[in-house]
Design a protein that fits this description.
The protein has 136 residues and is mainly alpha-helical. It has helices at 2-6, 18-27, 32-41, 46-53, 67-78, 85-96, 101-105, 113-135. It has one domain. The longest helix is centred in the C-terminal third of the chain and has 23 residues, at 113-135.
Length: 136
């Protein structure tokens, strides 16, 4: 049904894990939310990517909730597993202690190589968590 609404095209299948795909997508210019959403669902739809763009860098660039989490919640919802969002939050907090983009990035100059490397790590890690939740 979503395919008809959004004219969704699926990404080609390959041996790449969701975490690896998310890292590649992030390095290729997608933000954290877009990368997690696309990597864990295989959906490459311009409307969904436009929607997810607003969640990168924290909602609207506010540096609040990490965009990788937002992308993960969107992916879970699209797959009918939105009820697992609390598990995503718990697993993320267990690994990173906080969910706020500004706290996750505090020790880095914004958009520096170190900052982007940290965001890529978080994006990959989050995609891995979401992929696991979707596989449960």
């Amino acid at each position: 049904m979503l395919a008809r609404i959004f004219r969704i095209k699926r990404a080609e299948a390959c041996d790449e894990s969701a975490a690896e795909k998310a890292g590649r997508l992030f390095a290729g210019g997608k933000n954290c939310a877009q990368a997690v959403l696309q990597a864990t669902t295989g959906i490459d739809d311009p409307q969904l990517m436009a929607m997810a763009e607003a969640f990168g860098g924290g909602i609207g660039g506010s540096k609040c909730l990490c965009g990788a989490i937002s992308g993960g919640v969107m992916a879970l919802g699209l797959r009918g597993e939105g009820k697992k969002s609390a598990h995503l939050m718990a697993a993320f907090k267990e690994r990173n202690r906080v969910t706020c983009c500004s706290a996750l990035s505090r020790e880095f100059k914004w958009k520096s190589r170190e900052h982007l490397s940290n965001c890529r790590r978080i994006t990959e890690e989050t995609a891995g968590i979401v992929d696991g939740l979707l596989g449960d």
